[in-house]
Fold these 4 entries.
Entry 1:
Amino acid sequence: MTTLTILNYPDPRLHTVAKPVQEVNNAIRKLIDDMAETMYAAPGIGLAATQVNQHVQLIVIDITKEQNDLLVLINPVIVAKSGQQEYEEGCLSVPGIYETVTRAEKITVEALDKHGKKFKMDAEGLLAVCIQHEMDHLLGKVFVEYLSPLKRNRIKTKMLKHNREIARNSY
Ligand code: QAP
Ligand code: CO
């Protein structure tokens, strides 16, 4: 397995719209394994293919503390949603930044699993937040885009400085 490089906001590639997965083949299964390893190593609870510069509709999520319940969503579609909840979100592409975002409380999602088999699931609470956050990545949207322009610009400036530091340290 391989740990992949995660794109950092405001990298313009994070705004790429992902294409549907045509076939769940070995290349996709390898990408799933590498994304899971990358997420677990971070550690994080969710990662979209967009964040590792692979622009296909694929998400991995694991909200368990034990990191032993991987959820793979391929070509996910939200078919029902209800209610509202506020949650303080973070993102592996925006390290060190946590802000409150309002999203649906309950969702129903249809997707393909890692075997290419269609399934349907209900989610609420943190899992519902995480699925919505990761599906936004597939549309090229980062959670900071829900914030006011003032907050977003402060985060952008902070991240550009942070990214320069990283670049300088690896020089
Ligand atoms: C998305 O985020 C999420 O800033 C997944 O320094 C987050 O895994 C959905 C992380 C919260 C719902 C609620 C963030 C790791 C991980 C950081 C993550 C950091 C290190 C974020
Ligand atoms: Co994210």
Note: The pocket of QAP (ligand 1) is lined by residues 42, 44-46, 87, 89-92, 95-97, 129-130, 133 (CB under 6 Å).
Entry 2:
Amino acid sequence: MSTHTATAQACPNIAFIKYWGNRDQRLRLPSNGSISFNLEGLFTRTRVTFDTRLIGDVLTLNNKKVTGQGLQRVQTMLDEVRGMAGTNLHAEIQSENNFPSSAGIASSASAFAALALAASTAAGLSLSEAGLSRLARHGSGSACRSIPGGFVEWQAGKGDEDSFAFSIAPPEYWGLVDCVAIVNSEQKTTGSTEGHTRADSSPLQAARVEDAPRRLELCRRAILDRDYTALADVVELDSNLMHAVMMTSRPALFYYQSATLTVMEAVRRWREVGLPICYTIDAGPNVHVICPQVNCAMIAEKLEALNGVRQVLTAPVGGPARLVSEG
Ligand code: DP6
């Protein structure tokens, strides 16, 4: 008998400049580069054990056994790791999120970042940050941005080799917070993987992609200069552009609910009276409200008082994916 174990944890991330649409669906080569920050305090923790006694891969997520497509997606990454390490051992994967799935925060980014680090380490590989980011990208595009720490850019790259993420500023560089306004979400929405395949059916996607290098530069500059006004401007523009593409895809995708619009309107109103605040929205109805740490408690309280807001989670800028223990 022989076992090789590693445990890793990674944060989810929220994008300022969004990843929407792929040039290559299988390799998750994005149509445009993107910029995000990691969400501190929220994490997926994953333990991978390669074990000679196993006759197949076994996955448990939050103590529930996962089979079917969920397991398949994890096995695709394990097969890549097994190929690199020259092993054919099966693995037991135990994964937990410390945030509720009802919070509507995409867990695929933190999940595949933690899995990439835990699985490659357990298999005896010692990948570079870029190598880990590429591996994580194969599992879920946005997961490549949860490998490095702080404010992170995913360069679209020319191909598989150079499409990975790197840090553009450490977490302490700028004290921003994501106040996630969780709104009632009754209906199940279409997931991102399916959503990406529809992006090119929108007549707006080509214009969105063509203008991406300009928005990326504005966003990079705003972060490096800690210029909140410039950041708010490009972040809302980019989120609105992605949702315009979603709404004009075939079949169309609508993620906003009425409470989503209530929060967006409030954010615009509060900004007009001088609060440094902006919104960004992913493939779901919740609104991520970005503000400086000093205003966070007050803004969370104001958000909680809005009609349709069930709960507000707050997350400052987080660090890189890291190993928790090795055995
Ligand atoms: C709207 O990374 O979840 O959150 O690669 O299919 O797993 P897959 O997609 P995913 O897409 C993220 C989409 C987004 C925008 C973003 O985070 O950049």
Note: The pocket of DP6 is lined by residues 15, 18-20, 28, 34, 106, 108, 140-142, 192-193, 196, 282-283 (CB under 6 Å).
Entry 3:
Amino acid sequence: MRVIVCNDYDEMSRKAAKLVASQIVLKPDCVLGLATGSTPIGLYDNLAQMNKRGEIDFSEVTTFNLDEYYPISPDNEQSYRYFMEHHLFNRVNINKNRTHIPDGTTKDPESECAKYERMIEESGGIDLQILGIGQNGHIGFNEPDNNLNTVTHLTNLTENTIEANSRFFEKKSDVPTRALTMGISSILKSRKIILLASGRTKHKVVRELLNDGINTSVPATMLKVHPDVVLICDKEAYSDMYLGVDIGGTSVKFGVIDGFNNIVFKDSIPTHKDMPAKGIVDNIAAQCLKIAQRFPISSIGVGTPGIIDFDTKTVSATNLPFDKAPVALWLKEATGLNVYINNDANCAALGEAVAGEGAGENDIFMITLGTGIGGGIIIDKKIYTGKHGDAGEIGHMCIETDGLPCACGNRGCWEKYASVSALIAQTEAAAEANKDSILANVIKDDCVVDGKTVFKAMNMGCPVAQKVFDKYIDYLAIGVRNIINIFRPGLVVISGGISEAGDRLLKPLIQKVGSDTPIKISRLQNDAGIIGAATLGKNAK
Ligand code: GLP
């Protein structure tokens, strides 16, 4: 089976339409097998437009539809005859006498089915069959069963199909419980088959189709014996989905990513860090379960502050009540999904490496400037954690002997000089020492000092602020140079709130560092953590 993965429904519909159009151009009197359901509507729209533009001519085309509800009259809006008239036949120059759909009003379904089968044969057989796929793997109305019918027949619909198709009816009890449908071999006799699948409700069945063998409980797997089937699907139907969880001091962010690193859903809840560890994790688990009900999640990846003991899989963090907390285990027990965990800065680095600025690099080093300085080391697109799980604590590399004391017990740590907290302290000290400066006045007016204050005062031409900033860049550059000298990565990425300053931070930093190793601002910013966390699960496959 050939697989074409499209970005979205529209692209899928366009590609399918091109294939159908080529069939009509190559053989103007071809026999098309047609399907109903919401999936081929876009294909029919495209064909109608192509016909209108004069690109394809339906005048000699013959069609056979896969199926029809039973009993149902053709003027019932839910009948497949009505559907086809509305979506295709009334919009193109087709000869209606050449369009065939099983007769939902027949009193004798058995002979109607035999007649239908005969007519397909007499037409010379189907050149190109369009198929959708039911969530339970049905094609046409060939439902999962121990025995599949080969030819056109009357069938009972399964509860799953009645439920899925009830969206087109006023109420579920209005959905007919039976249908007339081409059989599996009627379908397999077609010379060529296009199978369409779109949206995440089809993801599970597409996985079964592509991964598992041939099985009557997923009737679409029968298509694997056919030599010329092309599955055209969109990313949502094709791709596995992974949940990324980024635990922070104030909020926990959640993101669902597909196999192509697109975020398809985002959400967040408050962390409530005053609660015990188990309570925090229970809240996270409840949210994960909610999300897993909406998306076909394969695994959960978690980025958390603190240090992970990879032997015991426990987390200890200073700014959360995690003291050897078995976060991954708790989440696995509550959700039943595999859970992977790593440090949040590492996850952000991984996210940036797979889907951000580092997408073209194997080795990157990410520096997060915030209250402290975090580091994430990516080697060969994988997180380097070191033997004890805590590699990359670059905020605590010493840049000044006998320098400022740090909470870690040492002195002169880089984060005491180059974090945003350090910049704020430097800004405050300079304003205090230069009470008449523009900087001091900006602080007086704003009643607050933050990472933006120095930039604001510089904009107003303040030499004191400029001096603070230049010194800050000196400090930042020392650390970045050290990192480059040790790791020589393909790229250094700077993230954290201050990176919003963009080129005003980056340009002087690059100049001061004076290296040919590229330094860039994080492209993903706050999303890097959830993408990286989700990638933990994706990479573990
Ligand atoms: C119906 C049709 C099938 C179709 C399926 C999926 O049951 N008999 O031919 O493939 O629904 O429909 P949808 O494309 O709306 O998901």
Note: The CA atoms of residues 162 and 175 lie 6 Å apart.
Entry 4:
Amino acid sequence: MQQITLQLDLAEIQGDLLIGMQKNAELFIFFKISDPPRFKTRLREYVVRRVTSARTALERERRVYERRRQREAKTEAWMALNLGFTRDGLTQLIGSNQPRLDPAFERGADNPETIAALNDLAPAKWTRDFRSDRIDGVFLVTGPDPSFVTFHGNALRQGLGSAVKIVYSEMGAVRPGAERRHEHFGFLDGISQPGIRGIMHRLYLSHEPDQGRPGQDLVWPGEFVFGYPGQDPNDPVKPGPPPDMAASWMKNGSFMVFRRLEQKVPEFRRFVAEQAARLGMDRELLAARMVGRWKSGAPLELAPLRDNSALGGDERRNNDFGFGDDPDQRKCPYAAHIRKVYPRDDTGGLAEAQRHRIIRAGIPFGPEVESGETTTKHSRGLMFVCYQTSIERQFEYIQRHYANNPEFVEGKTRPGGGAVTPGYDPIIGQAPGQGVREMDEPYPNYPAGSRRTTLQLPQQFVTLTAAGYFFMPSITALRTVLTS
Ligand code: N7H
């Protein structure tokens, strides 16, 4: 394991956003501040010292990696706590003449403009309790299992007393047994994240100077945390200016996007089976062509026709690919989820691709599919969380201009000529009014062939049932400006 000098103020930055909190379970507690003066006192005196910094998260991560290297089975019961505020929450803390932060944050996730821009389901159709009152902030409590996390969540509620009203809370948890680290459709998740310049804590570092793990491009930390250089818009490697801060207390903070995404798992499985039969192909291959990876995590770019679970689980190889040398979508469709949301070397240059990165930190929620559950009976899916310093240029851009845009990636032509419309991201893409979506080339023309196929998706298998935009302040901002 190698470490490059840390110029980042990790003791100031919350742990979930740069490093990730060690979590088998995560409780999301959405609250309204009912008594601002009391809330500020409780935050200063009780909460702040319990907030898990990126430094602590990194030390824990190192211990986990060290144990893995030594093949030790022992694990530790670590609790971690982070928190963020909506625009309404910041107004409660610092008044209504606060500086204007990111335009998307100021609008909010439930604003009609946001809903229209992202083709989201209207808040009237979201989980009822989530929208039963104003949401000022969220606590994230993580740990080794749900009962541990519930215990600490209850202690936190007691510590806050009547300073807050809990509007909604929900537990996320990793899936059991062999499905651990797989999301509910069955795919291995959490493989590809941007590498952060200044933090190297993974095993298996690449020999390439601008990569973390093999294939993992390094990104300047200002893309995810305020106060540091961001990406140069014209050069994927050079640092660009730090992102604008409307107030100096934003330093070491970040924006968090939360989306409760319900997944219709039995419906997804049935659809894939029926469509694979129609197209005369293996259903696992069709599912992989929708995602861009096999369930094992193996990328189609490296395993275009058959799964390779050894490859899927190998951190040295499972992210080491691009799309540039697959110009005719023979191995991986242009519309496949991972090709849409991070096109790598397939767009107007690598510098552009690196301007729309996010750090993902979500966790599944809901029970496993029951035997005999042929239409969804229980709400399950992904508590999607991502971090960035511009919601518009990062999360919203990905959802709006990539996943929801059938024309992206632009400028592709068929091998024999003629323009290609890649279609929607079949996993998270949303058409206006939840209309029918299409994706191009579900059937592979690999290594050769010219069979033209389309996949029509009359329904979404992923739907939005709650959402929020939060600011995750630095630990000093929590201790001072926001609670004075
Ligand atoms: Fe996605 N899935 O199971 O199909 N995602 N995602 N995602 N996603 C990824 O590489 C999934 C969602 C990104 O760097 C993998 O770690 C599901 C939203 C990005 O190559 C799988 C849902 C957004 C990446 C899934 C969902 C993104 C990524 C491969 C919702 C942003 C990294 C595992 C229920 C708008 C791409 C991995 C890269 C990877 C799935 C949501 C974005 C399997 C089921 C809302 C940037």
Note: Residues 69 and 203 are 9 Å apart (CA to CA).
